[in-house]
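Try it yourself: sequence plus adenosine monophosphate, in.
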Amino acid sequence: MCIFCKIINKEIPSYCIYEDDLVMAFLDISQVTKGHTLVIPKKHYKNFLECDNETLSHLMNIAQSLANMLTEKLHAKGMNILTNVNEVAGQTVDHFHVHLIPRYNKEDACIIQFNESEKQDFDDLTRLLKVEKKIN
Ligand code: AMP
Ligand code: ZN
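Structure, out:
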């Protein structure tokens, strides 16, 4: 059983701040910033891509409410909300989780950098990626 499933089953302790039938939120053990929180589904899904629709939309609603609550109670000035998919993207625990990382200043320990890499052909890419049908 994965470490987050063990947290859900209360086999290992956590600093839980919210729980309902579908999701749980607890403090990340490595507090990148004060109040760094993880929101997870109770059912085991490997990552964002594999999570079912109903759970995902509920989880994102709860993540938004908690992000607002953290902002208010901790007087954060901003928030990074992110999820890593697979090892290449930095996922270390293979149970879907959304990070809520309150931000207080640009020089804190949360460093997310978007560097430009090689130039892309935007026309080619758009042709390849354009979705013609409406996604429900
Ligand atoms: P990721 O790199 O996106 O997979 O993030 C996994 C996160 O889980 C890391 O930020 C860890 O600090 C956190 N983590 C791992 N074990 C625990 C635990 N037992 N309780 C709380 N957070 C944990
Ligand atoms: Zn799990």
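One thing you can check immediately is this: The mean pLDDT is 97.
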